[in-house]
Amino acid sequence: MSAVDDALGQISQTPFIYPVLYKRVRRALLFRFPYSIFFVMNPKVVTVVAVLHQARDPRRWPRSM
């Protein structure tokens, strides 16, 4: 959990360093653990839409973004 907290802190401080993967969805990779955090940015809010193990197929989560 502390790795997720660290990644979320980094995302909140510098969200633009993470690549856009699909439309407005960006991905941050966790250090030391094979998980990805997918998020979208709005003018004042960063919304996490998924936290997935990297072995999972990200195309399986909803396309409602």
Describe what this molecule looks like in 3D:
The protein has 65 residues and is of the alpha+beta class. 18% of the residues lie in helices and 35% in strands. The chain has one helix spanning 2-13; strands spanning 20-22, 25-29, 35-41, 46-53. It is globular. The mean pLDDT is 85.
Helix content: 10-25%
Mean pLDDT, to the nearest integer, reads: 85
Separation of the first and last Cα atoms = 26 Å
Q: What is the general shape? A: globular
Low-confidence parts: none
Give the neighbour order of strands across the main sheet. 1-2-3-4
Q: Which band does the percent of strand residues land in?
A: 35-45%
Tally of strands: 4
- Rg for CA atoms: 11 Å
What about the largest sheet? 4 strands, antiparallel
Order of helices and strands: HEEEE
Helix count, DSSP H or I runs of 4 or more residues = 1
Going by helix content, strand content and strand pairing, the class is alpha+beta
Question: How do the strands and helices of this protein lay out in sequence?
Answer:
Blueprint (H helix, E strand, L loop, with lengths): L1 H12 L6 E3 L2 E5 L5 E7 L4 E8 L12
Antiparallel strand pairs: 1-2, 2-3, 3-4
State the gist of this model.
This protein has 65 residues and is α+β, with helices and mostly antiparallel strands. It has one helix and four strands. The chain has one helix at residues 2-13; strands spanning 20-22, 25-29, 35-41, 46-53.
